[in-house]
Design goal:
Number of strands: 8
Number of helices: 16
Structural class: alpha/beta
Radius of gyration: 20 Å
Order of helices and strands: EHEHHEHEHHEEEEHHHHHHHHHH
Length: 394
């Protein structure tokens, strides 16, 4: 078990009608003028934005708005938010939406506190020393950005997708009302479930196997999300199971399920290049790649995959054939993806095979032209990355 520091400063306000506390929370955290950041029309059509406007007006908190965030949030929108925030002298960013909106809000908050180009942080050229306060009203449980230190932004020029992590960008508070997820389309619900589970799986697949409590928490979260996903796909207004998924979104990526272990985020890094190139849904991209990553790496620690197969996927442990048990667990996970209409390969994801040129391009970008590796369970070099993309392409 590794030594660790656990830091999760975000105040969580969870439950029905919890968004009614947003104005008082903004005041408590020092907000005097707010930039409300959101995505498409769903926040408006649902009445949520109108409700938030009324509450801010009721507390005499001035605000400006910037909508239009799309999945795989764009750097151009971040620049637009920084310009608007400066011209309007806002001092607080409120994200209303899912991970894309929250990530974009964090990037705007970094940019408002920085004299240079905010992309410097995502390229690794600079580290943030300040960040405007950010908070979230969560409507799409998936990315876990409401309690994580991360932000992922796509730069249109060069089709780049990069992440930046800093505790400075953690949300001051996160409002979570499961009822706000009732109208999520089945595809978006399923993509969210994949992303939630992957955040825990990429911490779970580690060579640090003596943190029993962390492993047990991770396994329980994975089982609950799997089972609850079927329930909400069958009954979208099932509050109990929508609540399980929403809370799991935060716990999966606030580092709780990785305390004492060495995480492996290789699948996320591989997927970033996939969605940057083809602009696919992040969760679907993860599902398309994970099985190939798992088959490529499972021999690095077969017993860890056996534990996953038995404790998460319910596979009977064949003590005479550990590799067979491990592979059965991988197949069971892929069967789960298929059962919720997620792809398990690139062809299913984009409707065709990726070309050799596209595969080489993704491997080049993921490895920064061979200069970096991905993951820790097995450190993947450029050739490994290309091999996994090719396995997923079959």
């Amino acid at each position: 078990m590794k030594d660790f520091t656990y830091y999760a400063p975000t105040e969580v306000v969870f439950g029905a009608n919890s968004e009614e506390k947003v104005a008082k929370l903004i005041k408590r955290y020092g907000g005097n003028k707010v930039l409300i950041h959101y995505g498409g029309g769903s926040a408006e059509c649902s009445g949520l934005l109108g409700k938030i406007r009324n509450m801010l007006n009721g507390e005499q908190i001035p605000f400006v708005e910037l909508g239009g965030v799309v999945p795989n949030p764009r750097l151009s929108k971040v620049y637009e938010g920084i310009e608007l925030g400066r011209s309007e002298r806002v001092d607080f960013i409120l994200a209303v939406g899912g991970g894309s909106v929250i990530d974009s809000a964090k990037a705007i908050a970094y940019g408002l506190a920085y004299e240079g180009d905010v992309w410097d942080f995502f390229e690794g050229k600079a580290k943030a020393r300040a960040c405007y306060p950010v908070a979230a009203v969560l409507t799409i449980p998936a990315a876990g950005s409401e309690m994580s230190s991360g932000s992922v932004i796509s730069k249109e020029e060069g089709e780049l997708k990069r992440a930046y992590d800093s505790n400075l960008g953690r949300c001051r508070f996160a409002i979570m009302n499961p009822e706000r997820t009732y109208t999520l389309p089945p595809y978006q619900t399923a993509c969210g479930a994949v992303d939630i589970m992957m955040h825990t799986m990429e911490r779970y697949f580690s060579h640090d196997d003596d943190m029993t409590l962390t492993d047990t928490l991770a396994e329980g979260l994975l089982r609950v999300v799997r089972d609850s996903t079927f329930k909400v796909l069958d009954d979208p207004t099932n509050y109990r199971h929508r609540a399980q998924i929403m809370w799991a979104s935060s716990l999966a990526h606030n580092d709780l399920t990785g305390c004492g272990t060495t995480p492996d985020f290789a699948t996320h890094m591989l997927e970033h290049e996939l969605s940057a190139l083809f602009d696919v849904a992040h969760g679907a991209g993860l599902a398309a790649l994970w099985g190939s990553w798992a088959r490529y790496t499972y021999c690095e620690n077969v017993s860890r995959f056996v534990r996953f197969a038995v404790n998460v996927m319910g596979i009977d442990n064949d003590f005479t054939d550990p590799e067979g048990t491990a592979l059965a667990g991988i197949k069971a996970m892929e069967d789960f993806y298929r059962a919720i209409d997620m792809p398990v390969g690139i062809r299913e994801l984009i409707g065709r095979e990726a070309t050799d040129e596209e595969i080489r391009l993704m491997a080049d970008k993921c490895s920064r032209n061979g200069s970096v590796t991905a993951g820790n369970f097995k450190k993947l070099n450029r050739e490994d990355m290309e091999a996994i993309y090719r396995m997923a392409n079959q």
